[in-house]
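Suppose a colleague, Dr. K., hands you the sequence of a protein chain of 149 amino acids and asks what its three-dimensional shape might be. Before reaching for any lab equipment, you can write down a predicted structure in token form. Begin with the sequence itself:
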Amino acid sequence: MKYVTRKSDFIYQTAFLIILLIFTATGSVYAGQTIDEVRSKWIGVSINKLIEKHGYPDQSFTAPNGNTVYVVIKNVKKLYPVPVFRQPERKEVDMYNTKTGAYSYGTATTGGGWTVEQQMQKSECAGYFEVDKDKIIVEVKFKGEECPK
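The predicted structure, expressed as tokens, is then:
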């Protein structure tokens, strides 16, 4: 019986490590920080540091002043419970009565009423990191619902 306990402990530990790895891997450049914290952390830093820490940006373009702007997009998916009213389903039934040996045909109603389903809402935050000719971040801005405030 000890083997079963150890095996279940191993499964729980493995599941915990996988969940921890997922949360670590999906961390973002600015998760849970204020805009001032993000700006003070990245302005004056080489864009290579940002790439080294968080991977390549999603997009880039040249600003009117000649600087390059790198865009990092963070997608957020949230599940919300939503009450839904379902109409009952009518199904045809074919039943056999074992006492009389007769078949009966008809319809039955199933599955009506209120249920709670999960609805996914997607939102994003785009971080704009402006870089000068020396590849140093000179400005940081954000657009989107899930951005630092």
